[in-house]
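## retry 2 of 3
previous attempt timed out at serialization; input unchanged, resubmitting
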Amino acid sequence: MATSPFIGRLLDRLPRRRLMVIDNVGQAILYLSIPIMTWMHILTFPILVGVVTAAAALSPLSMIGRGVLLPNLVSANDLEVANGFSQFRSGLVTLLGPAVGGILVAAIGAPLTLLVTAACYAAYVLSLMGIPATRYRTRFPRDPSTTSDPAPNPWRFLWNSPALLIIGMVTLFFNLTYGPLEPALPVMVDRVYHSGAGTLGLVWSSFAVGSLLGTLLWSRFRPQWSLRWFITGVIIGWGLFSGLTGFTTHPWEAMLTLFGGGLVYSPYNIVAATWQQRLIPDHLRGSVFGVFQSVTSSGLPVGQLIGGVVVSVWGAGATITIGGAATMLLGLVVASLRAPWSRVPDTSVSQ
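## retry succeeded, writing output
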């Protein structure tokens, strides 16, 4: 959250490949330092927190960089499919990454597992070097008057782009209403299902499987829906499935509801990313993405904090249900705001 706006501006002004390489080399060094300090018997919890904080501060170089770079790698007609593939990759990592990590920790131990993590960042660097340098270059508009401002204001650009402004505000509150699920679900597994971490992993895995399937279905069929009703449908659908999780009494029931939630939710990130990439010119993409990510991501920790407080007062099931109801209410509000939607071009999400 803190470094995204600054890093986004850097991605518009400095060589993008070099910045993304710096990120991944830095990440490799940081994660490599943890087992080294473990073997030297100098690793402490505050040092570990510092290492992870530094890694998080660098991460927007690649997180924003991927979104900035993708429109330069594919044609405009293939952009939504490319974002679908990227979303599928994210879902696959979410599903398989923890499992692979657990297997490696059990087989070779945590320090050596972090060496494998560092090697993965090195592989990322090689993939970045394999992309032609011309694809990384910032493309400025031909009209020199549009680039006369040495420091374009991303806030002004967002304010003057109704579709982006709506997507940003909706994503902020969507993250906020989703947030309570994360602290409440582990408590639900413990106190209602009377189970442990393995069950929690299965429940989240069902969400990941639903997300993967939803991504594949959306990329295959790409229905011609308006942006307004697409966003409304996704939000209400997720609120319904996630809210029903609060009424479950068995982990298999929660797996079914969150599978449905993942199925409904997954197209949101594809469509939101595609609209951002199409509406933001290349020379402003990093700056606007940085501001966008910093603002929208703030909703998640606030929602988690609120959820933790509500769990301690009303319990996990009620917290999850309230979060789902708040999400559905958000969807109804989004649908009812006719004036802001009137300023958005009447186009389908797949155009």
